[in-house]
């Protein structure tokens, strides 16, 4: 997305960091650059408003649900192990659980967009897929 006008911060960069901005996870200097961009670029401002509205809707709709304690603990433990592996320089492996759709008329798996044969092969064998590898 771009309005076609030149900006100090490119539209693509702004949109790449939009959720960091919405979640207040950016340094103030970067936030200021995005605010300036939003003042100059109506398509990016519109996208910002849309994403902000979606986050507010999700918060209203799902904000009262408590995360099960065991799930929260498992997720936090997995994040810690991934971070520890990244700090030590180890190759990080992430297991991916998938569901295969079957067409009733042919009883064959649904075609996979993009033809990710390597990820598909790993899924069939039950092997974990490396972080960054294409998987669905």
Task: Write a short abstract of this structure.
The protein has 136 residues and is mostly helical. It is built from six helices and two strands, in the order H-H-H-H-H-E-H-E. The protein has helices at 11-16, 18-22, 28-40, 42-62, 69-88, 117-125; strands at residues 93-94, 129-130.
Walkthrough of the structure:
It is a single chain. The protein is mainly α and 136 residues long. It has six helices and two strands, in the order αααααβαβ. The protein is flat and about 50 Å long.
Secondary-structure map with pairings?
Blueprint: H1 11-16, H2 18-22, H3 28-40, H4 42-62, H5 69-88, E1 93-94, H6 117-125, E2 129-130
Antiparallel strand pairs: 1-2
Helix pairs in contact: 3-4
The total count of helices amounts to 6
Helix content: 40-55%
- Outline the biggest β-sheet: 2 strands, antiparallel
Biggest sheet: strand arrangement: 1-2
How many β-strands, per DSSP? 2
Structural class, judged by helices and strands? mainly alpha
Terminal CA distance reads 25 Å
Residue stretches low in confidence (pLDDT < 50, at least 5 long) are: 102-110, 115-136
Succession of helices and strands:
HHHHHEHE
Quaternary status of these chains?
A: single chain
**Estimated share of beta-strand residues:** under 5%
Overall shape: it is flat
Primary descriptors:
136 residues; mainly alpha; 6 helices
């Amino acid at each position: 997305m771009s309005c076609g006008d030149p900006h100090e911060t490119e539209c693509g960069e702004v949109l790449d960091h939009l959720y960091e901005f919405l979640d207040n996870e950016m340094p103030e200097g970067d936030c200021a650059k995005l605010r300036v961009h939003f003042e100059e670029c109506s398509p990016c401002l519109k996208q910002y408003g849309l994403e902000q509205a979606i986050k507010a809707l999700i918060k209203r709709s799902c904000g009262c649900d408590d995360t099960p304690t065991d799930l929260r603990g498992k997720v936090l433990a997995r994040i810690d192990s991934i971070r520890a592996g990244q700090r030590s320089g180890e190759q990080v492996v992430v297991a991916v659980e998938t569901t295969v759709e079957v067409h009733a008329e042919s009883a064959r798996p649904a075609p996979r967009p993009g033809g990710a044969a390597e990820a598909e092969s790993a899924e069939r064998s039950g092997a974990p897929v490396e972080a960054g590898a294409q998987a669905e």
